[in-house]
Every structure is written in structure tokens, then in C-alpha cells.
């Protein structure tokens, strides 16, 4: 195309208008708007996916910690029971020893 074909003359004011430049800018702006919307949609979808994954991981970790806490609580109860049984056995041993010494 020659330079003459890229310009038109305004019938009102007589100014030369670069048609190619105007069309290029318009197409470029439309392209940006379209892709910007697509990028925003993709970004939002990615955020939602990551958010769901994090929530699932957090729920799983919380459940695992609660289960571990319950297991440790049971172990602690068993420990306290055994300690009480041991203390009772020690007292009984001392009482029996005292009874034997008293009888002898």
C-alpha cells in the first residue's frame, strides 16, 4: 500500500486522517480488553482452586492433630492409672512389711 492509501481526507475540515493507525489502535485496545477479561477469569479460577486445596489440606491436618491429641489423651489416662496402681501397690507392700515386722 502506498502512503496515500493509508490516509483519508476529512470532508468537513480537510485534515488528513491516518486510517491504518486508527484501526491499529482500535484493534489493539479491543484485543487488550478481551484478553484482560480472560486473564481475570483465569486468575479467579486459579485462586478458587488454590483456596479449596488449602482448605482441604487444613481440614486434613486439623483432623490428624485431633486424632493424635485423642490418642495422647488416652495414653496419658493409662499412664495416670498405672501410676496410681503402682502407688497403691507400694503402699500395700509397706503395710504388709510393717505387719510382718509387727508379728515377728
Give an overview of the whole structure.
The structure is a single chain. The chain has one helix at residues 19-103; strands spanning 7-9, 16-18. The chain is mainly alpha-helical and 104 residues long. It has one domain. It has a two-stranded antiparallel ribbon with strand order 1-2. Strand 1 (7-9) and strand 2 (16-18) form a beta hairpin. The longest helix is centred in the middle third of the chain and has 85 residues, at 19-103. The radius of gyration is 43 Å and the shape is rod-shaped.
Summed up:
By secondary structure, the chain is mainly alpha-helical.
Shape designation: rod-shaped
Mean pLDDT: 91
Count of helical stretches: 1
Fraction of residues in β-strands: 5-15%
Q: What is the straight-line distance between the termini?
A: 130 Å
Described by strand count, sense and barrel closure, the largest sheet is: 2 strands, antiparallel
Q: Class by helix and strand content? A: mainly alpha
Main β-sheet, spatial strand arrangement = 1-2
Radius of gyration: 43 Å
Poorly predicted regions are none
Question: How many domains, as an integer?
Answer: 1
Order of helices and strands: EEH
Helix content: over 70%
Oligomer: single chain
The count of strands amounts to: 2
Amino acid at each position: 500500500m502506498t502512503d496515500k492509501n493509508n490516509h483519508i481526507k476529512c470532508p468537513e475540515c480537510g485534515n488528513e486522517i491516518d486510517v491504518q493507525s486508527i484501526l491499529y489502535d482500535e484493534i489493539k485496545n479491543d484485543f487488550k480488553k478481551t484478553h484482560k477479561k480472560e486473564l481475570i477469569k483465569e486468575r479467579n479460577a486459579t485462586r478458587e482452586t488454590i483456596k479449596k486445596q488449602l482448605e482441604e489440606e487444613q481440614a486434613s491436618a486439623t483432623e490428624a492433630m485431633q486424632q493424635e491429641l485423642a490418642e495422647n489423651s488416652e495414653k496419658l489416662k493409662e499412664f495416670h492409672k498405672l501410676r496410681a496402681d503402682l502407688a497403691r501397690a507400694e503402699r500395700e507392700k509397706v503395710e504388709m512389711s510393717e505387719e510382718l515386722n509387727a508379728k515377728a
